[in-house]
């Protein structure tokens, strides 16, 4: 308020010392705006009346203008200052309301994040215990079951072991990671056969009879994490089977230049990006890429996974022998 009074007095003195043709009305608006912003429209209106009176005295009364004209000018200025005070106050109140709503929303989401983080901490701490116990029991009974069971039971038991590994990964590694970042995944790379991985992924599906698996005769050797890749392909196959409840899902593995290409074809419905988030993460963690091609709501989708082949496995035997001789020399 003191600043507004000082500005009003200074503006009045300058208005008095300058010719009457010089209009100081915009300068009288400045204390009105400042006061209305800080103290509200009533205080702004009071400064507007004070400013109109000061300008009325400095320009009209002391310079001998017609009284009726001076009064009209003064009342007009009061109306302008009143409107300016009300608009400034309303704008200030709207800004405060927006800031309050923003702060309230921020506090709400902070509370939601705190609750989610608390649940995540509990899962990270408690989830691995039953998963480790489940895996231990499965490994304990594996030898006896494999020895005294049929081939079909052994396949189903291997699928059970793989599902336990997938749940363990989701409940421990991915939950502790807290984000979908392939660079932060723990990947254990070793030389693996992509054909075997695809076979195990298809065998893990409850609807195995609707999975048409076609593998090339060429070697499909990779340097990758077999568990993570099996998990990725199992997710893709199961999701396509869910979207195609009455149709088969074809899985084709072939060699494309220096890469292995795996095509998973879903004919009934489109596969969305959200359906391939986890497979894309696991494939990227193994140095590959996943491409989703949608062909319309009635024509389904094609998911293609490209993985780099092991270069050493693609060398001819003569080149491998020469390389070993070079190393020995």
Description:
Helix content is 63%, strand content 13%. The protein is α+β, with helices and mostly antiparallel strands and 329 residues long. It folds into 3 domains: 2-100; 128-178; 190-314, Heat Shock Protein 90. The strands form 2 sheets. A 5-stranded mixed β-sheet has the order 2-4-5-7-6. Strands 1-3 form a two-stranded antiparallel ribbon. The chain is elongated, with a radius of gyration of 39 Å. The termini are far apart.
Rounded to an integer, what's the Rg over CA atoms?
Answer: 39 Å
Q: Into which percentage range does the β-strand content fall?
A: 5-15%
Question: How helix-rich are the residues, as a percent range?
Answer: 55-70%
User: What's the arrangement of strands in the largest beta sheet?
Assistant: 2-4-5-7-6
Count every beta strand, where a strand is a DSSP E run of 2 or more residues: 7
Number of domains: 3
* Class inferred from helices and paired strands: alpha+beta
CATH homologous group name of the largest domain: Histidine kinase-like ATPase, C-terminal domain
What is the architecture of the largest domain at the second tier of CATH?
2-Layer Sandwich
